[in-house]
Structures are given as structure tokens and as C-alpha cells.
Amino acid sequence: MAVSLTFDITGIQPDIGAPAEDRLISGDPEFRTWNIEEAPGGLYAGIWEATPGKWRIVYEEWEYFHILSGHSIVTGDDGQTFDLKTGDSLILRPGFKGTWEVLETTRKDYVIRV
Predict the structure, then answer these.
(1) Mean pLDDT score of the chain, rounded to an integer?
(2) How far apart are CA 79 and CA 45, in angstroms?
(3) Is residue 53 part of a domain?
(4) Phi, psi of 21 (to 5 degrees)
(5) What's the CATH number where 50 sits?
(6) What is the pLDDT of residues 19-58, one digit of tens each?
(7) Residue range of the domain that includes 57
(8) SS3 12
(9) Which residue from 57, 73, 93, 105 has the fewest beta carbons nearer than 10 Å?
(10) At a CB cut-off of 8 Å and minimum separation 6, what does 33 contact?
């Protein structure tokens, strides 16, 4: 087993998804997720992309991500807003609740710890 891994999605088929119907606020967003790493103990890493729309989010896991392209706005239930564009990074911790709105198709790389 290799002890290093690049974030290369060449040859990886993405998982296709969408927000749960009860969380959808507006639009018809579609998700594409390229899972690059699934390590023992609940560690995940990969690339995620979403088309425009808005939905509720509830984090039970810890996530770090870096915006590779696009424009999204994440708003917490406490009113704090994160205007995310190419080059921005954010950590969302367990317990974060709010909305994710994709204004321009957004692609991010991520590391999730459950």
C-alpha cells in the first residue's frame, strides 16, 4: 500500500447525488463526489462538486475543505455567513447547522473525520 496519495480523479467515477427532499430550499442542485480516500476510523477525502441551488445542512462530522472553483454561501443558523470563492478554505465542526447555497457551480476538495 502506498504511503502517499494525490488528489487525482482521473479514472474515478463520481457518485451522483442531491440534497434530501426535506432539506431542499431552492433550485435543483446535483452533487458529484469523487471519493479518493476512505481510511479506517472514519476518515474520508476527495473532491465534491455541486450545481446551483440551496439546501439545509447539518454537520455531525468534522470537515475541512478548500474551494477549487465556483461561488457558494454557507450561512449558519446563528447568522454567520461565509462567502466562499476559489481559494477559500473553511472548517465546519460537528453541530454546525445552516444552509449551503451554490451561486456558481462549486468544486471543493475535502477531508472529513466522523
Answers:
(1) 97
(2) 28
(3) yes
(4) -55, -40
(5) 2.60.120.10
(6) 999 999 999 999 999 999 999 999 999 999 999 999 999 9
(7) 15-113
(8) coil
(9) 93
(10) 14, 15, 17, 46, 47, 48, 49
